[in-house]
Design goal:
- With 278 residues, the chain is α+β, with helices and mostly antiparallel strands.
- It has two helices and 20 strands.
- The strands form seven sheets. Strands 7, 8, 11, 15, 16, 17 and 18 form a seven-stranded antiparallel beta sheet that branches. Strands 12-13-14 form a three-stranded antiparallel beta sheet, with no helix packed on it. A two-stranded antiparallel ribbon has the order 1-4.
- The relative contact order is 0.20.
- InterPro entries: Flag_bb_rod_N, Flagellar_basal_body_rod_CS, Flagellar_FlgE/F/G, Flg_bb/hook_C_dom, FlgE/F/G-like, LlgE_F_G-like_D1.
């Protein structure tokens, strides 16, 4: 009886967390460069129940022999195993702003361990040291003329330097070269991660490595191709229709577990109030 209560409770907790993840995805459906989170639910390891006892052997000396009888497997519930970002490219949105730049995915090698494709990101200077990474190319110029993102983090060049321009009248070519009046100023920095699932997702569409080390440059990486498009932004890759369906499914699963919990509660109430009187 109580084992069933614990199993139902794990199901409700898992579905609640899944609902929170889907809701956050839907809230960021219009956030540039946002990567939708995907959750994985799995069951806890099953337990094998066995009955242990003694049996009398009908002989003259009445020998008691122990026995073990397998009853069967019991599931102990489910849990939300992990949450991973979906790094598929979002659709392009034209903004006609020179400071808006979109990364265009090309070909990436496949990670042998995970079986997933790699991913590329803009390089940003993190104020706490090291680098942060993003797909949100909604950049601006600070008062000093440095190219920064919405958080005020400096956008880095391929050499790891801050990019400064006199005004927003600059041109970004398809290979990432930043030019002012036909004079090359810098090349936008892009980093490559062979297994982006290992990156830590932070607020405002930022990513960092687990140990704080910097990712390798995507330029001159074997098997890596990509491009840039100025006056465009990469939109969120959230599928609103699918997210709504998944949200309803998670809600129904939570509701079903809730009804089972109510049935257990009624059975316990009868056991205490009715059977106890006898």
């Amino acid at each position: 009886m109580f084992k069933g209560l614990y199993t139902v409770a794990t199901g409700m907790i898992a579905q609640q967390r899944k609902t929170e993840i889907i809701t956050n995805n839907m809230a960021n459906a219009n956030t540039p460069g946002f990567k939708a989170d995907q959750s994985t639910i799995r069951s806890f390891p099953d337990m094998l129940l066995s009955a242990v006892g003694n049996t009398n052997i009908p002989v003259d000396k009445k020998i008691n022999a122990p026995f073990i009888q397998e009853i069967g497997a019991v599931n102990t519930g489910i849990y939300l195993q992990e949450t991973l970002a979906n790094h598929a490219q979002g659709s392009l949105i034209e903004t006609n702003k020179t400071t808006d730049i979109a990364l265009i995915d090309g070909l990436f090698p496949i990670d042998e361990e995970s079986g997933n494709s790699g991913a590329i990101f803009f390089r940003l200077e993190h104020p706490d040291g090291g680098e942060a990474y993003t797909r949100n190319g909604n950049f601006t110029l600070d008062p000093e003329g440095y190219l920064v993102n919405g958080n005020g983090y400096y956008v880095l060049s391929d050499t790891g330097e801050r990019i400064i321009v006199p005004n927003d009248n600059f041109v970004v070519s398809g290979d990432g070269t930043v030019s002012v009046d036909d004079v090359e100023v810098a090349t936008l920095g892009v980093s490559f991660s062979l297994n982006p699932a290992l990156l830590v997702k932070q607020d405002n569409g930022l990513f960092q490595t687990v140990d704080g080390t910097n990712l390798a440059s995507a330029f001159n990486q074997e098997g890596v191709t990509f491009g840039f498009k100025q006056n465009f932004l990469e939109g969120s890759n959230v599928d609103s229709a699918k997210s709504m369906t998944d949200l309803l499914t998670a809600y129904r699963a939570f509701e079903a577990n809730q009804k089972v919990l109510q049935a257990y509660d009624k059975s316990m109430e009868k056991a205490v109030n009715e059977i106890g009187r006898v």
